[in-house]
Amino acid sequence: MNALRRTTSIVAIELWLPLTLVIIWWVVSEYVNSLYFPPLSVIMQSFAENWLNPENAAANLVPSLQVIFFGYALAVIGGIVLGATLGLVRPLERAVRPVVEAMRAVPGVALLPLFIVLFGIDQQMRILLVAYGATWPVLLNTLDGVRGVEPTLLDMSRAFRVGRARRLFGVILKSAGPQIFAGARIALAVTLIIMVVSETVGASGGVGYFLMTAKSEFRIASMWSAMVALGILGYLLNIIFRIAERYILRWHRLQQARLERTS
Q: 145 lies in a domain?
């Protein structure tokens, strides 16, 4: 009963402001006579037609979800591998740090023309562009997390003759886990941004393609419905991320709770 009450309270706290804003938007938009700001009721009709209809939703969402899934997966895996390598091999990190800083300063969306020239305008290009742009937050947070591991933990693992693989996954990456997840959360937001921009050029489906097509055809309500769909997609992805983070970093929360009780 307590768990249900706590869950209900958390949901109510999270949803009261969005619901309030939606109600205000719905009421105010009914009295705003503007071509560019249609009533929310009209936007939701377009949303239901384009994003809740199974056939239309598949054409509009599946390409975007493919780019998000594969691009984000490549970014997280690549960022952890490269970040851990640079964090463990100090001379290599010092040698490549200027290159890393220069490359991460270039936004992924700015490289869209270059990626089109190198990889064409198909789905592979969009996945690679997302992977490139979203890798940097994971890489840099992993690097800092690995370098910030307590030396005492490493000394104890060596003293107990813990194998290298077990030391890497059970001590180093586990200790750096909270910081790695912080980078992965930032990378998720970057993924959505680059996905939308990449789909505005040469795509045949996806949220970005739908958004640009609706703008070009002056379907304002449909354009707004795409932005609503993008916001809902981002919120759902964030919920999935939080569930995974809560499960994987369960040990960290328990450790923090013990420290709070003893302090």
A: yes
Task: Provide the phi-psi class of 206: left if phi over 0, else alpha when psi is between -120 and 50, else beta.
Answer: left
Backbone angles phi, psi at 173, to 5 degrees: -70, -30
Chain segment 30-56, per-residue pLDDT in tens: 888 888 889 999 999 999 999 998 888
Would you state the structure tokens that stand for residue 110, as one six-digit string? 């700015």
Rounded Cα–Cα distance for residues 195 and 193 (Å): 5
Q: Kindly state whether residue 24 falls inside one of the protein's structural domains.
A: no
- Residue 237: inside a domain: yes
Residue 96: give its domain's CATH number.
1.10.3720.10
Q: Whole domain around residue 189: which residue ranges?
A: 40-257
CA torsion through residues 225, 227, 233, 235, sign? negative
Neighbours of 25 (CB within 10 A): 15
Give the total number of structural domains in the chain. 1
The pTM (predicted TM-score) of the whole model is 0.89
> What whole-number distance in Å separates Cα of residue 11 and Cα of residue 253?
20
What tokens appear for 238 in the block? 């964030």
